[in-house]
Structures are given as C-alpha cells and as structure tokens.
Amino acid sequence: MNLPRAEASVAAPDPQLTAPFGLGVASGAPRPDGVVLWTRLAPQPLAEDGSGGMPQSPVAVTWEVARDQNFVGVEKKGEALAQPDLAHSVHPRVDGLRPGTEYFYRFRVGDQISRVGRFRTLPAAGTSVSTFSFGFVSCQAWYHGHYTAHKHLAQEPDLDLVLFLGDYIYEYGITPENMWRQGADVGPAHSVEAVTLEQYRLRYSLFKTDQHLQDVHARAAAAVIWDDHEVQNNYTGKTPAVSTPDPNFRTRIAAAYRAFYENMPLDVEALPQGDTSDITTSIDVGNLIRFALLDSRQFRDPAPVDEVDRTSPQRTILGADQEAWVANQLRTSSATWNILANGVVLSPISPDKVDMWDGYPAAQTRMLEAMSKASNPVMLAGDIHKHVAAELKADYADPNSRTTGVELVCSSIASDGDGAVTDKHTADWTQHPYVKHYDGRRGYVHVTVTPKDMVSTFYSVDWVQSDDLAPKQVSARFYTRAGQMGLSPM
C-alpha cells in the first residue's frame, strides 16, 4: 500500500468541527531522542460508517512538545496531515529530544486543542539506568465489562512504558447476549462481526472512547503488538480459524492490519503492505533492558491436525525469519535483562492448548533454548484472561531442573467479565510445580526493574461488569534477583 499523496488539497478547519479529539491521544515507539505521537480525528467517534464523522478530505493537524504541561517554552512543534485514507489518523515521529526526559504533548486543529499527553524518552544507548517501570495488559473486550484495571494503571506513580500484548479489540458482533458491561448500549452497526475496514475502524472507535483507556495512553508511551482478535479468533498466518475456506480472508487481514495501524502509535515501518505488516521491534533501555516485541500470529503454521503434526520439528509459531531475528536480539544483547513480549503463553501447560506455544513444541523448545543463553530472560504474555507467573525450566521432565528464566502472564482488562480467583481451569495450570501463581480475575501487571532485581506485581479487581468502582488488590508480588532467575513471593 502506498502512502496517500501529501499534496492533496487540504481542508481548512471546519468551524463546525468541534471536539475532534474524541479518541484521545497517544505516544509510542519510544527512542532516546523521541517518540511517535498519535491521534485520530473523530468528532463523532461512533459514526456507523467508521469515518468518525470526518469529511473525505485531508485536515492539517499541528502538534507541540514541551518540558512542562503548560507548554511554556515549546521545544518541538510541527504539522501532520490527517488523511481520509488513514481514517484521519496522524503518526508524526518527533526526534531531537533529550534522552531520559519527561515531556508533554498536545495536538491542535484550528482553535480546538487536544488533552495533554505525557511520555518519557528512553535513556541514551549504553548508559547505566538505575530503574525502569512498565505495565502490561491484554484482552479488552469492552462489552464484557468496565476498564477498571486501566483506571488503576493510569494512576501508577511510576510508569515509563505500557505494553499492549494483543486483543486490543474483539471482532465479534456485540449482542444482548454478550453485552455484560452494565449501563452501556450500542447501535445495530456493532451487532455484526467486523470483517471490513469500515467495521474494524468503528470497533476501534468504540473501544477507544473508554476514558480509562485514553488515560493510560495519555500517561505513558506505548509499545503494541497484536494477537488474534484484531483479525479473527484463532486465525493462523493467512488462514482463517474456521474450517470453511474463505477466499476473501486475506482481504480481511489487510483491512484489519490497516485499522490496527490507524489506531496505534506506530512508526511508519508498521504501515501495512496489503495483508502484511511488520510490528516486530526491539527497544533498548540503556544497558538495563532489551525489549523484543514479537508477532506470534502472522507467520505461524496452522493449528495441528493430529499429534504427529503437532510435534513436527518444522512447525513454527514465529516463522523462520522472526525466529532468527529474536535469537540474534538475545545473542547480541548487552543488557542486564532481556524481556520478550508476545501474544500467547510460552510455558508448557497441556498438549491440547494448541493456540499457545504448546501447539508448536519444537518451536517452543527452540525459543526456550535461545532464551536460556541470554542474560536474565523474561517472557511477557497475555491471551488467557488469567494472571499466571511461571518459571522457565531447562528440562520440564525433571522437577529439580535449573530455572533459566521467568514468564509473566497478565489477565484480561475486561474479557470474560468479573472472573474469580479460582475457576474451572485452575488445576490445569497449578498442577505444574513451575507455575507459581494463578488468578482468574481481571487486572494488569506492573514491573520495576533495576540492575540487581525485578519486582513484578499482579493487580486484580473483583468486578468489572456492574461499574468501574472496584478497588485494586495485590494478587501476588514476586522478586527476581539478577543472575538467579526465579520467582520468590514477597
């Protein structure tokens, strides 16, 4: 796909274009010298054609970055063109900023000004970093409950980065049967499964109208990957999950990937080319952390047809090129901590969980071996709507095997409704001695990393369906010492 032509005639700001920032603001793809800023103009976010109520013409958007939230002494400013071909979203890359510094930003269209967002640039490459804190989340079925966990995450006093690990939206039609968020109502355009670009745009608009989600994006820079529901539940590669062939499925993927880009603070490298998009990237936090963000959906082999197929040594969940890339990221890293982020659980749990890495045991083994050779490896995952903390082992057949790393799995923000501490799946997970924690409630995970240790705190809320008033609770907190990988309860 080619970028829209910038020389198209630009619409003067419509004096009737009030409140164009209905989907909030965001920053992402952080570097030591800057970030990508994002907004999408949508004065009518739930316009059923997915346009956000915008005209079919480009609109100029100005942006400003300053060291203080009153914008006294603007350090950087510029203009971006919000074009209808990209749903009037803008993704300006701001550079030339100071490393390891807090900044504030805002957008303007005519006399309309957005809310103020905040981000912190990364420390300079190779520098010593005393501490870095991040949160990670997944699975935001808006219709299943309120985004209470986002409300609490946005209030974290220490938050340098937020990682979104997939299922940012859900493609399912929203019906009276699955509308568990009390007090909410949607029109008939939302009742059908999203398959077209306009429908995916509308679904993002619906989810992004949530104030608590907007607060999280305004609070800190984001790093984002997808899982399956950004397209279709359990799809693999270019293949739909359902058994009936769909000759238009690659067109659907292209629409879904385009809408993902339009609604996320991503660099231009992630702009889809048809049904292909590159969202893999690494983020270095001085010499403290190397993050590697993985795509565990786009390049995977189809679900296995039998046990012989499942255990085939050729099967891959990342694809050969991405496997080589992440192995190189681990091998060449000089960081104290090497943190990978992907959509699905790596730890071996059950052979019938074929949508996780358990469906790809040969690839699972290769990943575990690559991680075991890196300094202090950590895997982050989501997908399962449960909090899980697990130790990665050199040999899972030996209960006394050496611990080589840890895996932290966040529960959902709203998917599956209220949840409970224990549920019908608890025994499947806790039967394994290397699984150290399980909680079936909604929530998020906050992690603080220093050169000496990592503290991971799992926060949960007791309910999300009735309202957003549930207080957060510490579900579990673990201490991991650098050089001595494991999970020690605190």
General description of the model:
51% of the residues are buried. Helix 2 packs parallel to helix 4. The chain is built from eight helices and 23 strands. The termini are far apart. It has 490 residues and is an alpha+beta fold. The N terminus is likely disordered. The strands form four sheets. It has a seven-stranded mixed β-sheet with strand order 12-11-10-20-21-22-23. A seven-stranded mixed β-sheet has the order 13-14-15-16-18-17-19. It has two domains: 122 residues, Sandwich (Immunoglobulin-like); 366 residues, 4-Layer Sandwich (Purple Acid Phosphatase, chain A, domain 2), CATH 3.60.21.70. InterPro entries: Metallo-depent_PP-like (IPR029052), PhoD-like_MPP (IPR018946), PhoD-like_sf (IPR038607), PhoD_N (IPR032093), Phospholipid_Metab_Enz (IPR052900).
Concise description?
With 490 residues, the protein is an alpha+beta fold. It folds into 2 domains: 1-122, Purple acid phosphatase-like, N-terminal (Immunoglobulin-like, Sandwich); 124-489, Alkaline phosphatase D (PhoD) (Purple Acid Phosphatase, chain A, domain 2, 4-Layer Sandwich), CATH 3.60.21.
Distance between the termini: 50 Å
Would you report the number of β strands? 23
CATH topology of the largest domain: Purple Acid Phosphatase, chain A, domain 2
Q: What percentage of the residues does DSSP assign to strands (E)?
A: 25-35%
Q: Helix content range of the residues, please?
A: 10-25%
The overall pLDDT, averaged over residues, is 95
What's the architecture of the largest domain in CATH terms? 4-Layer Sandwich
Secondary-structure-based class equals alpha+beta
**Biggest sheet character:** 7 strands, mixed
Radius of gyration: 22 Å
Enumerate the spans where pLDDT stays under 50 for 5 or more consecutive residues. Answer: 1-8
The DSSP helix count reads: 8
**Tally of discrete structural domains:** 2
* Overall geometric form: globular
CATH class category of the largest domain: Alpha Beta
- The side-by-side strand order for the widest beta sheet comes to 12-11-10-20-21-22-23
Please name the fourth-level CATH homologous superfamily of the largest domain: Alkaline phosphatase D (PhoD)
Organism: Rothia koreensis
Protein name: Alkaline phosphatase
Domain Phospholipase D N-terminal: 23-121
InterPro entries: Metallo-depent_PP-like (IPR029052), PhoD-like_MPP (IPR018946), PhoD-like_sf (IPR038607), PhoD_N (IPR032093), Phospholipid_Metab_Enz (IPR052900)
